[in-house]
Amino acid sequence: MATLELRNVNKTYGHGLPDTLKNIEISIDSGEFLILVGPSGCGKSTLMNCIAGLEDISGGAILVDDADISGMSPKDRDIAMVFQSYALYPTMTVRDNIAFGLKIRKMAPAAIDEEVSRVAKLLQIEHLLSRKPGQLSGGQQQRVAMGRALARRPKIYLFDEPLSNLDAKLRVEMRTEIKLMHQRLKTTTVYVTHDQIEAMTLGDKVAVMKDGIIQQFGTPQQIYNDPANLFVASFIGSPPMNFIPLRLQRRDGQLYAVLETAGQTRCELPLGAMEEGLEQREVILGIRPEQIGVAAAGEGDLSSIRAEVQVTEPTGPDTLVFVELNQTKVCCRLAPDAAPREGQTLTLQFDPAKVLLFDAQTGERLGRLGTMRTQERAAKVALLKAH
Questions:
Q1: What is the rounded distance in angstroms from the CA atom of residue 78 to the CA atom of residue 61?
Q2: CATH number of the domain enclosing 308
Q3: C-alpha 316, offset from chain centre
Q4: What confidence tens digit (pLDDT) does each residue in 220-248 have?
Q5: How many structural domains are present in the chain?
């Protein structure tokens, strides 16, 4: 196990070309599971290759256990990588694929056999050791690729979208296997994915990337509950967060968010004290589907609004109910026995404490006066402790 730190890492492919990676700052402790998540082309695989040494960085430093490895060749970094394509040798058996790296390192044959047996038992592939990759399913090939990396016992494991070639059911199964494996081995791991569900379920820490920039770095709970901007809020969560464009009104020093239905039913959601001038800006209200409550008939208050159900989508454990507010489709996640039918009217309740506000032009979070975001508060506490 090892710590991993990226200090102001940059990557460009030539003079005059835009930076692929821009001022990447990440630090994880020994044994932590880091997820790099973002859309295609955001730079996450490039960053993974830079950590592995497959690509050189243009600036900054990569440190493992406080030692700068930026100039080392891949073979000297003591890092193992599992590729999206598995990269197994088709003419070798599973046993030989797992043992290949150990033979290159000139390990004793008895020690190689012992290590192959250990890994095969861990991944439950003992019965596959005599087969070749062409005789295996996608999930079995992925296990073998993982076994080859595990057999080396490196300081850090890198996974580059390892489940993207698997079907939906197998992806769920393998996701669980990877999490169980990490819990058993406590290995420092960096995992690249574009799947936000993998990011939320696997990671101790998550770095959300866009256009080569870390948009937010924190725990899955921090990123889900306290997104730094509109991009992070929209990318993380399934179904995604609702975004409702609206007008803000100020009365007696308090701000109110105005919500309206197509039938002109209206509510003014009190938001409390906020910075001056917001009522002149284009604002987007964000709230997650499960955070919109439904009141019984006649039990609404000033923070509720009656709306007609347009569409329902049963998913089994939940039913997604869609209404229209401020000419925008809004999703509510309800229990199946509480879900109304299309055409019925329900009373939606909004908890002002759950509501997030974003600047419509910049996408940045707008905060209430007298409060700090979770990350800002944690940073301030750490600074005070340091002094």
A1: 17
A2: 2.40.50.140
A3: 24
A4: 999 999 999 999 999 999 899 999 999 88
A5: 2
Residues 100 and 249 in one domain: no
Identify whether 383 is part of a domain: no
Per-residue pLDDT tens over the stretch 289-327: 999 988 876 565 667 899 999 999 999 999 999 999 999
Q: How far is CA 280 from CA 247, 277, 297, in A?
A: 8, 6, 35
Q: Is residue 298 part of a domain?
A: yes
How far apart CA 128 and CA 136 sit, in angstroms, is 8
Strands 79-82 and 242-251 come out as unpaired
Question: Is residue 358 a contact partner of residue 233, using CB atoms and an 8 Å limit?
Answer: yes
Last residue of a domain, one of 235, 262, 277: 235
- Parallel, antiparallel or unpaired: strands 319-325 and 328-334: antiparallel
Return the axis-axis angle of helices 138-151 and 168-185, rounded to nearest 10°.
20
Residue 24, domain CATH:
3.40.50.300
State which amino acid sits at residue 370. G
Cα–Cα dist 145/157, whole Å: 12
Q: Are residues 161 and 303 in the same domain?
A: no
What are the backbone dihedrals phi and psi of residue 120, each rounded to the nearest 5 degrees, phi first?
Answer: -60, -40
Long-range CB contacts for residues 255-264, cutoff 8 Å, separation at least 24: 255/279, 257/283, 257/285, 257/355, 257/357, 259/305, 259/325, 259/326, 259/350, 260/305, 260/325, 260/326, 261/305, 261/306, 261/307, 261/308, 261/323, 261/324, 261/325, 262/308, 262/324, 262/327, 263/308
d(CA 175, CA 144): 15
What is the side-by-side order of every strand in the sheet holding 59-64? 21-28, 4-11, 59-64, 67-68
